[in-house]
Amino acid sequence: MVNKDIHGPLPQYAEQSNPLLEAVARRDAYYDRNRAKICTFYIRGACTRGKLCPFRHEMPVDNELANQNIKDRYHGNNDPVAAKILHKISDIQTTSQQLQPPADQTICTLFLSSIPEGTTYEFIKTTFEQYGEISSLKYLEEKRCAILTYLYRSSAEEAVIRTNGYVKSGNAFIRVGWTKKRDDATKASQDTAASGGELPAIPPPEILPTNIHTLRYTSMESDYTPVTKRPKLPPGL
């Protein structure tokens, strides 16, 4: 397709949105931009307009922007706005790394953290079962986390992609990420202990030689009498 006013073909735009832009995008309305400024006379206690004053009668919140120098802001030195943007970008990069699916295809478990108070078990199950069949769900309400296991790996990947690492619950968000695989030796020992089996025996202490003498004093002025003691062996040896 060629436009007569523009020489050459039209640019091809991406059909899908960028996941990084979706993470940065604001999900709620932001009304602070259009709010009235704080009345400086009210801060000094000298405003006589009362309710007729077009400015806000409230004390400012102390933050880094209140003490910002215009010269530093212009040259980019000690800029809290830039530091906030860089910190936000680092958080996005950390989140994107956590959303990378593990190489082990047997892992179908997701870890849900920062669960807001008041979130119920039914809400978590209803929210995540739309991406696939859930095998198990363990909700630790006191620790504000949950362990969710899907029956298929494709369902877990779809849940991570569709939620983009966050699920809204009330006025807060639940963080979604992959679980890490436990060490094989640790897992084997835990499974053995859970099943009631015997753990590997602890090796006995090394037997000391019999020619070692311990000193026993009868008094401070008398000579000592060497007493030979053999170490006690653990029962069964």
Automatic annotation (TrEMBL):
InterPro entries: Cwc2/Slt11, Nucleotide-bd_a/b_plait_sf, RBD_domain_sf, RRM_dom, Znf_CCCH, Znf_CCCH_sf. Residues 33-60 form the C3H1-type domain. Pfam families: RRM_1. Keywords: Metal-binding, RNA-binding, Zinc, Zinc-finger. GO terms for cellular component: Prp19 complex; U2-type catalytic step 1 spliceosome; U2-type catalytic step 2 spliceosome. It comes from the Eukaryota. This is Zinc finger CCCH domain-containing protein 25. It comes from Lygus hesperus (Western plant bug).
